[in-house]
Amino acid sequence: MIQHNHDLEILKQMAMADGILTENEKELFRSYFQLTDKEAEDLFQSIEAELECVQSETEVINWKRKNGIDFEKCIVKMLNPQYYTLQEWTGDKFIDGRFCEANCNPDITVKVNLDKLDVKFAIECKWRMNFFNGYTRIATERQLNHYRRFQEERNITVFFALGVGGTGEQPQDIYLFPLNKIKYPILKEDYIAKYLKKGKELYFDVKTQKLT
User: Are 127 and 111 in contact, with CB atoms under 8 Å apart?
Assistant: First the structure.
């Protein structure tokens, strides 16, 4: 019977670190814990099952993250460089719960190329595979509050760009709506239908502060 649960967990983590249970690692388990063939077989099946779960979850996370990044790029490409300058493009890097405060800011901050005016706006980009029963979550309450503080402190109008369907690179639909119109982190499809984007370029009206 396997003893030394702490040591066993350490060896399991070592085996899972690279996503592969090698023959050398199997032999290490056998010799260190003096496993019977049955104990070894049960243990290896358990580890391999955990590896499959981790790999599946990682693939889903990577797929979602890729589409999210691709959608940000899609929105950036819709900004004509003749009229708009990309000033900030945040990332989502963090470790052990620690993150850069700027990472909580909207994804993109843009300056309008006007000689005599310093006009900027910001866009938070979200891609979703579809609406679920006519609803989608675009942020957490905490994120919404942070965007509101960002908008107030920097005097920059914040918009959401929501891509739905297709891929992040080529979404089926894109919705553009101002943060000021959002009260809750969960939105109804019918509510944002009027913000459906038409055309391939983004246009920011300096006078009305509207992004279309």
Answer: no
